[in-house]
Write a structure and sequence with these properties.
With about 500 residues, this protein is an alpha/beta fold. Helix content is about 25%, strand content about 15%.
Length: about 500
């Protein structure tokens, strides 16, 4: 869709729910497991903010991150596309790699800004900078969050577990506190810029609350990807749950409690400013949890990085006063790239078939008065090693053996990790070269599960149902080959 056509449609198409377009807040935790929040698991430590959202909104039982690791999910949420359509074919971005979002891609924040929203990203970025290798190391930050549609960015450039010299905050296109004349890799210069891990959640919370306050008189879109609960497990002292310093379980519970507190700070701010009734808030996670540090994915098998349900089935809570019936539960399979099309419908924007091609709107699920019908389609899952799976209702086909979480031939910091940019601005597909297992002679070369009968994915039905395998594999190949939406 041309820019002129977009603005023509924007002018003549009213927002889906009247002139008072709601604010939109997306809070995405890092590595929060399906069973880490009390609305999802009996016996989980109390998370009162999540409990409040479940009581005032809708709880999804079958929501999925597009990938079992963080960078690809963030790409998918902001573009409405599976990340394997980008140059990154597996794992996550290293600090050396260029911005993953391609030139010319219509992003979610850019779409919301064009629809009249003030846009901000506050929290973890981890989608790269620049158009060439090593832009971050060379202090070239202008091609990053601001370039893809965010009016304001404050947060962490990569991850909570970055190297010490990268434990910094960024505001828009600069490192906060970096002395003039110093480079990002200068340990002397970064002494003043290094952030406190224990205070990071509080600092991000303050920035999010300030953004809401400053934009309370206009529609705003806030993407708030927290650093909680990614390792290292560093809750502020106020959330340590009385645990000893070496008590991972207690510390992790405190880290989850700190995340829930951050959600509560947003809710309280909306209440105080009289914005709650006209604000949609979504709370979710970028992938499954890591039991090694205390994460809980019950009742699903698997964990972060893996193709099994625990790797990508995530909590999702949505509150939309006046539209979402309080205390409801949705069992429909959905994926986080759908947030793009959902926001587009809310903002009154019509998407071209070539934009956000893997995204469908949740509005028919959220709003009982909606005239639309939710589009049911197969979901594609992706593991850290790039192992594919496809889910269609009760059936799930894993297109290979194993969990999809193993070794790579290239490391994140290896000099071989070089992304090649073509003359036309596109990139060559890049892989860290996963070491994938091969089926032994006489054994099936894939996995098929019926999640209704076998939610723990223990009984491989691959050889018993060749017709289901063939159908799902055909759907998977059709989706991988698609250059425009198959569902709109």
């Amino acid at each position: 869709m041309t820019r002129a056509c977009f603005f023509f449609l924007l002018f003549f198409i009213a927002p889906a729910f009247g002139d008072e377009r709601p604010n939109v807040i997306i809070i995405m935790a890092d590595d929060l497991g399906y069973g880490d929040l009390s609305p999802y698991r009996k016996g989980a430590p109390p998370t009162p903010s999540a409990q409040r959202l479940a009581g005032e909104g809708m709880l999804f039982t079958d929501a999925h991150s597009p990938s079992a690791v963080c960078t690809p999910t963030r790409y998918s949420l902001l573009t409405g596309r599976y990340a394997w359509r980008s140059y990154l074919q597996d794992w996550v971005l290293s600090e050396r790699m260029p911005l993953l979002i391609e030139e010319g891609i219509e992003t979610l924040p850019a779409m919301m800004r064009s629809a009249g929203y003030k846009t901000a990203c506050i929290g973890k970025w981890h989608l790269g900078f620049g158009r060439e290798m090593d832009a971050y190391q060379n202090n070239e930050f202008s091609i990053g969050p601001n370039r893809v549609g965010f009016d304001y960015f404050f947060g962490v450039p990569f991850s909570h577990n970055s190297s010490p010299e990268m434990e910094v905050f960024m505001e828009n296109d600069r490192i906060v506190g970096l002395p003039e004349g110093h480079r990002v890799w200068d340990p002397v210069g970064l002494t003043a810029a290094r952030r406190s891990l224990e205070n990071t959640a509080g600092d991000l919370s303050s920035a999010a609350v300030n953004f809401i306050r400053e934009n309370r008189n206009k529609p705003f879109f806030l993407y708030y990807p927290t650093t909680n609960v990614h390792f290292p497990i560093t809750p502020h002292a106020a959330f340590r749950m009385g645990a000893r310093g070496d008590d991972f379980e207690g510390l992790y519970d405190g880290f989850v409690a700190e995340f829930d507190w951050a959600v509560g700070e947003v809710l309280k701010t909306l209440d105080r400013l009289g914005l709650a009734e006209n604000t949609i808030i979504m709370v979710t996670s970028d992938n499954g949890g890591l039991p090694k540090f205390g994460g809980n994915n019950d009742p699903w098998s698997g964990k972060k990085t893996q193709i099994y349900e625990g790797g990508h089935r995530v909590p999702l809570l949505i509150r939309w006063p006046g539209k979402v019936e309080a205390g409801t539960v949705c069992d429909e399979p959905v994926a986080l790239q759908d947030i793009y099309a959902t926001c587009a419908e809310i903002a009154g924007t019509t998407l071209d078939l070539g934009v956000a091609e893997d995204s469908v709107s949740w509005v028919p699920l959220l709003d009982g008065t909606s005239a639309g019908e939710f589009i049911r389609r197969p979901l594609v899952h992706h593991s850290v090693q790039g192992l594919f799976a496809i889910r269609d209702r009760d059936w799930k086909l894993v297109d290979g053996i194993g969990s999809g979480a193993g070794k790579f031939r290239i490391g994140l910091k290896d000099p071989e990790a070089v992304v090649i940019r073509n003359e036309d601005g596109t990139y060559e597909p890049f892989s860290f070269e996963p070491v994938l297992p091969e089926a032994k002679k006489g054994e099936p070369d894939g996995q098929l599960f019926n999640l209704a009968n076998d939610p723990g994915e223990q009984n491989n039905l691959y050889e018993e149902h060749p017709e289901v395998v063939a159908r799902l594999r055909r759907h998977l190949e059709e989706i991988k080959a698609a250059e425009a939406s198959l569902w709109r």
